[in-house]
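Input sequence (189 aa), recorded before submission:
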Amino acid sequence: MTRIIAGTLGGRTLRTPPGSGTRPTSDRVREALFSALDARGAVAGSRVLDLYAGSGALGLEAASRGAQSVLLVESDRRAAEVIAGNVRDLGLGQRVRVSRSSVDAALSRAPGEFEQVDLVFIDPPYDVDEDALGAALARLASGWLGPEALVVVERSKRSPEPTWPDGLERDGKPRTYGETTLWLARPAP
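Predicted structure, token format:
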């Protein structure tokens, strides 16, 4: 069972897409991640982009903790429908939007359509290779990110460090929780 950890919607249950293609970020990892983000003041009032959204758990957690706006991008039709249902059930329609599109297509749009973002979650399926992840990061770094933005990449602990494009640099050491490693990055000065 996936649930919102904290904030105004803490404890509320989220539906997850059927099938094995989606693996929601575990409650343990989300709790650790959001504790670190809250300590940095990175969530409240932020504009959030959740790529490869799956169930929408990361973006919806951010909304519960006070994010100003959230855009959830998911290409799978069933998953996007589940996310839209979660948004509706949680009463977040004013601040949270769902885009049923590939990450590549979403990032190909002009960043101005959604404003620059302050916080990005990237939790791609295991079959998204390092080149595709690098391409998504490069697109983000070319105009999508606000000057103080934070990018969170979630991968298997067996995956290599993402290839950070020009304009984006790793922020601190990776954090590993069981089988999951979180990499943080910021716009390069």
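Checked by second reader. The chain has five helices and ten strands.
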